[in-house]
Here is the input.
Amino acid sequence: MPMRPLLLGTLILILCALSESQSTIRQVDFKNFTYPLRGHLLGHDRLQWLTTDVHPQRKPIHLFKGEDLTKASSFVMDGHEYIQWEGFTFQSVNFADLTGDGQDEAIVVLHYLTGGTQTTDYVYIYSFAAGKPKLLSYFHAGSRAYSGLCKVIGNHGELVVDLFDPEKRSGDCCSSGIVRTRYKWQHGQFEAIGPVKRETLEEDH
Here is the structure.
């Protein structure tokens, strides 16, 4: 009999822990998730925020196991089929407090494959409210050397975005420099703050 209250208490603690663990942004499965999508998919050469109704709405991205891909083309060589894919793949998710409320936001990066040489990245920023993710804003970068995404992080309450510098490009694919812009969540949107910085690309990038 004395074991029954102990087991019941343990069960309650476990359930409480599970409930708490499922009430944060870090528990969201962003690899199996639906993302909104607006604007054109090709021809990107700069960062563009996409949360306004100015940009036409497209079919949402439905990631399953980190992918939403369709076969764009293929060819057979030496008996092996080589496939070019079009669509989105999950790249990364990082967490940082970007709104100053003491709670983490998620910074999710999706990579878009065109089926050709152009590529781009979409960055989604989600907070957590009423038990579910809430989209704050999202943007696409450029393509490769033309302001393609190098890195995006949260740092001391700011969203820091590094894009490849088109002024230091070597062909369409590569650049030896980055352009760094810092954003702050203000007035219901991410606004650029401070000077834009140009730096030489470090080898670890």
In short: DSSP finds one helix and 14 strands in the chain.
